[in-house]
Amino acid sequence: MSSEKSTLYDGTIAVAIGSLKALAHIVSVAEAHPNSAIFLSARLLLAKMLGLEPVEYDEDSLTSYADMKTRLDEVIKTLEGVDKEVINTRSASSVTVGVGENKPRVTLSTPAYAYSAALPNIYFHVCMAYAILRSRGVPLGKSDYMDSFFAPYAS
């Protein structure tokens, strides 16, 4: 990721990758109950950004620590394989999404969806996994969460 002009890709897909890498590290440290909801958020972000249907994952198949690590690796590789220019051209497009049970669907610009729904949802699940594991005595610190976000900028 460049430290020059930030693009839609830089502010969405690259941030989602950092979030998933942070979760992968947290899961590696913890080897405990991972929160599979993060994968739903990441695949929905990519699908909505590209105007596609989201990939379906069988959440019931996440029965072991190894399953969780494999799933994280799959989702990270999918996001890393996205064409940056395709994402950057989507800033003028829109997506229609549900915002909760018994609430009407809303149409948002693709950037508004990414910044106001998808990314906050990803952050929420990564932070909750971190907080729950830390409250149960897993030796996690701030750098376990933050380092994956800094990595693309480190020389």
TrEMBL record:
Question: Out of the domains of life, which is the source?
Answer: Eukaryota
Q: Give the protein's recorded name.
A: DUF1993 domain-containing protein
Organism in which the protein naturally occurs: Akanthomyces muscarius
What lineage, starting at the top, does this entry show? Answer: Eukaryota, Fungi, Dikarya, Ascomycota, Pezizomycotina
